[in-house]
Amino acid sequence: MRLNNLGIVRTKIERPDPADVARLSQFGVATIHEAMGRVGLLRPYIRPAYTGAKLCGPAVTVLLQPGDNWMFHVAAEQVQDGDVIVAGCTTESEDGFFGELLATSLTARGCKGLVIDGGVRDVADLEKMNFPVFSRAINSKGTVKATLGSVNVDVVVANALVHPGDVVVADVDGVVVVPRELVGAVADASQKREDNEEAKRQKFREGVLGLDIYGMREPLAAAGLEYVED
């Protein structure tokens, strides 16, 4: 009988339709988050390691031990083209789990980036490689390879639950998780929201006020807002 989920590598995970992932990748994190009903965001301390980093892909999940990056090497074998690595830790740790050598290995497997609730290093090299990374910290502190974690188990990353195969989207506005079975529907909802916002954007360009676009005048008056000329 297992007492925890450590020491497990699940070699078969379900991934969403690549066409749906491609459609979802056209939208920003804020649009996707709103389209899903304002859910799915990771905590805002997860930031791009360098300016311009962005990613979208199915998650190969990694559960790390603090100060130990052994499981990244195990996870590399499970990566398929288009995947992203999403890594949590058994407890808070900002050590430099990931750098240029691991990025080189993962790139060769078709990996499209990393989201980690921990530290990374070699940021200048990662930027030159155009390997997008979103992390809790940038930290040169090295790690060891000594303690088992797991690969492709459910992980909590920056307060968000991520299942293997869920799609993770990240850009300058943050990181959002889309459940695998909802990727197509969320892409549809995001497109609908984008179309609606474009219509509003055009009205704003024409000088129409948000007070009128959103029908705010009556509820503001009902709430007691008064315009006073002194």
TrEMBL record:
InterPro entries: LigK_PcmE, RraA/RraA-like, RraA/RraA-like_sf. It holds the Pfam family RraA-like. Its EC number is 4.1.1.112, 4.1.3.17. Keywords: Lyase. Its cofactor is a divalent metal cation. Homotrimer. Belongs to the class II aldolase/RraA-like family. Catalyzes the aldol cleavage of 4-hydroxy-4-methyl-2-oxoglutarate (HMG) into 2 molecules of pyruvate. Also contains a secondary oxaloacetate (OAA) decarboxylase activity due to the common pyruvate enolate transition state formed following C-C bond cleavage in the retro-aldol and decarboxylation reactions. This is Putative 4-hydroxy-4-methyl-2-oxoglutarate aldolase.
